[in-house]
Description:
This protein is an alpha/beta fold. It is built from seven helices and seven strands. The N and C termini lie far apart (45 Å).
Amino acid sequence: MKIEGSVALVTGANRGLGLHIARELLARGATVYATARDPRSVDLPGATVLPLDVTDAASVAAAAAAAGDVTLLVNNAGVATFANLVDGDLDDIRLEMETHFFGTLRMVRAFAPILAANGGGAVVNLLSVLSWITFLNATSYAAAKAAEWSLTNGIRLELAAQGTQVSGVHLGAADTDMMSRWDVPKLDPAAVATAVADGVARGDLEILVDDAATGAKQALAADLRTVYPQLS
């Protein structure tokens, strides 16, 4: 996927990783649609700003109608409620699944024909180490990200015939508002954006940004009591 000269749409581009990814794509010569539920919250000179709520079908359809020249779709919009599955608020759990799984699916269904008409292009889904492992107070988020990972694998197969490259991005914690409550080592979001753009340009189907992502993938083959010592 050649980024220079591409036309990218980035969801959740008003802050965090979405803002940094949109900025990185602009710097590499892409035309960028920067989207957010509140377009007034987007401050990115050089980008075309569009309103978009990935949980609303009409909003997704309107964005697709306004951005018919897209060749690179970056599904970044996300939410973290820090709910647990057994005792968490079901509305919070539904919101995470609605955003990460169904929101991503809505975007892909709306933009797949556009990508096909424009030569194939690429889809990038921002996933997480929590696609593969889970932690207390984030088990709902992890379930939603695991579903989005499976979705990513599925659409990769379904869109291969139209020449659309599908990449899943996995990383640990980035220094964003979403992760502000967690006292853990955090990645520079600008460095994450660089890794994402580099991976897309190389044609990587999985972009493992850091050691946490590499370790989480390796843990899929490990004994569960090793991955989760609290179960021993």
